[in-house]
Amino acid sequence: MVVERFLKENPGFTLEKAEKVLPSIAEQYVKIFPPRDGCDGSFAARIRRRGEYD
User: Fold this and answer.
1) Torsions phi, psi of 14, nearest 5?
2) Which residues lie closer than 8 Å to 26 by C-beta, 6 or more apart?
3) Of 5, 8, 19, 49, whose CB neighbour count within 10 A is largest?
4) How many C-beta neighbours within 10 Å does residue 31 have?
5) What residues contact residue 48 under an 8 Å CB cut-off, 6+ apart?
């Protein structure tokens, strides 16, 4: 997946789990599927530079 590859190639960044912000609908990423969710599809990942907002 694109996010995992980016994090592997850029060790100065970390993935912030989506469940911190949207615990009722997300775990690691926000994934919205048209058949399941009845809307346009979408994907979101929150990536932070290490050391920011610690």
Assistant:
1) -140, 155
2) 17, 18, 19
3) 19
4) 16
5) 13, 14, 16
Amino acid symbol at 30: V
**CB contact at 8 A, 34 and 45:** no
Give the pair of three-digit tokens for residue 49: 């530079």
* pLDDT tens, residue by residue, 9-39: 999 999 988 877 777 666 788 888 888 888 9
47 contact partners, CB below 8 Å, separation of at least 6: 3, 6, 7, 13, 14, 15, 16
Amino acid identity, position 7? L
DSSP string, 18-53: GGGT-TTT-SSSEEE-HHHHSS--EEE-EEEETTTT
